[in-house]
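User: For a benchmark we're assembling, each entry needs the component sequences followed by a predicted structure for the full assembly. Here are entry 17's components. Please fill in the structure.
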Amino acid sequence: MNIKIYPKRYIQFIIKYDTVFIFLVMLIVSALVSDVFFTATNLFNLIRQVTPVGIISMGMLLVILTGGIDLSVGSIVAMVGVLCSLFTQTMPLYLAITASLICGLLTGSISGYLVSVQKMAPFIATLALMSIIRGLGFIFSKGAPILVSENASSLTDFGSGNSLGIPNPSLILLLIFAITSILLKYNVFGRIIIAIGSNEEAVRLSGIKVNAFKFSVYAIAGFLSGVAGILTTARTAVGSPVMGSGMELDVIATVVIGGASLSGGKGSAINTLLGVLILGMIGNIMNLMNIPAYSQQVIKGLIIIFAVLLQRFQKNSN
Amino acid sequence: MITTTFIKVNRVELRNISKSFGGIAALKNVTLEVIAGEIHALVGENGAGKSTLMKILSGACAKDNGQIFIDGNEVQIKNTYDSKKLGIGIIYQEFSLVPALSVAENIFLNQLGATSSWMNWAAMKKKAVELINNIGFSINPSLKVADLSIAEQQIVEIAKALSEHVRVLILDEPSAVLGPREIQKLFDTLNRLKKEGVTIIYISHHLSEVFRIADRISVLKDGTSVGHLPVAETSRDSIIRLMLGRPLNAMYPLRDPVIGVEALKVVDIHAAEKVKGVSFSVKEGEIIGLAGLVGSGRTETARAIFAADRSAGGTIILFGKELRLHSPQMAVSKGIGMVPEDRKQHGVILSLSVKQNISLSNFKGITDHFGFINAKKEKYNTAELIRRLDIKTENENHETGKLSGGNQQKVSLAKWLNRDCRVLIIDEPTRGVDVGAKVEIYNLINELSHKGVAIIVISSETTELMGICDRILVMRKGKIQGELTKEKYSEEDILRLSIGATLNTET
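Assistant: Structure for entry 17:
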């Protein structure tokens, strides 16, 4: 049966570009089921909503490429958001932002230290930090949302504003995506990160400081979580200790939908960005269709399973 | 090909067996005829396909093509259960014992639960003792296998195979871990089994043993059968020529060493439990060999020098300067390189391209100040090394895991050619590599030494060390047991040193 050969080739093509395929399917489905989806307002909202997850997903991608995981990102968003609001009340804005960013970087560095130098399992180390940092967020804020100081209106203006028809925070996402993409493709950093995830011991025996690279990916993930925390605070003008709860799972899901392997060594920035959009679209379209929140959770989970199964086919077809 | 026809039937006949792994042919139309009640030796270089052929017979590995006949009837062997039913027992090179279980449990592992769900410890231990005594050894059946020596484990393996009624017994390199006295006992057992009518297939590349024990020899080379000969009608030299496809001395490059100053000196190296005070030195342009049995501490010594494992003490002096090395990264920055023993786990990253693997050891020449890789320079640099080492790959972007073992090993070497090392440690340079690539690797090592690199070669193949090294140090139980200079090389002396026996020449 010759006819069967052609569909096979199409299937292989689809499997190769599975993330793009899922993205396109989602786009078509969204357009079909809702008239509102392709309106400027909705797309604008969609992009704005996915931005924090998107920014962190770039850091998570780096961590996952080394074969690690970071569960503390959602807590960092909250703590840095709270701290940023507090800082604006006592410091000039540029100092408040710098200090907040450093806090994100430092918390990420603690995970990095535990994983690389202390050889702690990433899951455990970041699980512990997830709890610690979430707690610190509540302690710093005394459990209440903190308003951004009125003196820092340029921060809130930036966070809620837009340029060229795109929300400002999303422009920062694009910048971070571009940098990640370039680092992964053209820089030694990306080359080594991917190699570590493929076979850490072989990289170590090649004479590379594996620890330094493992440390840095967690530091970067912490830093980017801080960025997301500041931007969320800037948009809402409030730093709340409950921000970003459960966010780590969304971030991991986007990276996985984007085709990255949780065992490391495989994944790309562009696919991760598509993963971010796919997950965002799932939520967006279900909201437009008035699907209740509980059902949304179930559907979201099913779509993640489907996406990962598709990647399994890809592995097998190799 | 000479096949002597007897009136006896073939107990085992393999006809036109083919098998390939990921596009690389391991066996090509191999034929093997084993007469009932004989000891049939299967010889060939590492990677010739001996083990693969036997795995097919024992059902551990599926054949692509070909037929298997037992006593003249074609049989289908799809899994190890099928082969067991046919009375085929196999003792693998890698043991299949469970370390946490006792000797008795291991021997009867396959039969546990066959008659009752309850353990009859007394009967089991009694039978185990009988089996082991029958082979001429005594091992306490209650001991855990993990606590046995490797030689004792080998005995347990044999007892396990004999515990079931076997008609065909396959032994894959059984003598590799045994001392001379134990080998003699093994041979006595095999001869006794032969008298009892068991057909034995004996895999080895130690020809001296083969000539002592076997009735007939089949030779494999690069996955094809190149000869079937009765022992009485052949000689060692003709078997070697069949195995290698050339006389032995043509395998190795002519050594014309230009020895310089002392490059590396190690004094009293200790590491974990495995290395207990090793000292030696190697000069520029010199190739020294580290011989010894598996587990003698050779690899651990190399890893300690390279700072791959935390060293427990000792001094490393490189060109007169004492070094404190804490990581491979430091060792590499000082000019020490190591090609690890386990190519697939440590030497190369199989999922990455040839280019990515080679560049990993040295990004200096191909990047700018910000670590951005100059694609053109990288491509040029890699292509140059691929050409120099004659790595057979479509291009530099080909996945390393899809190359043959020999070419993967060349990539592993290329990493260190990419970085000018002053001392290079090569652990098992040609394990699982075909003969052609072996010769190329030997030439490359020789060429490197001519450029003044001090080279330490670790190998389990004694002939290889004798062929390429200027000196051989023999290790035993974490210490250097003795040193042989080129004019005193003999396979026997190296073996004697490695098992702790005295040298013939020292009397």
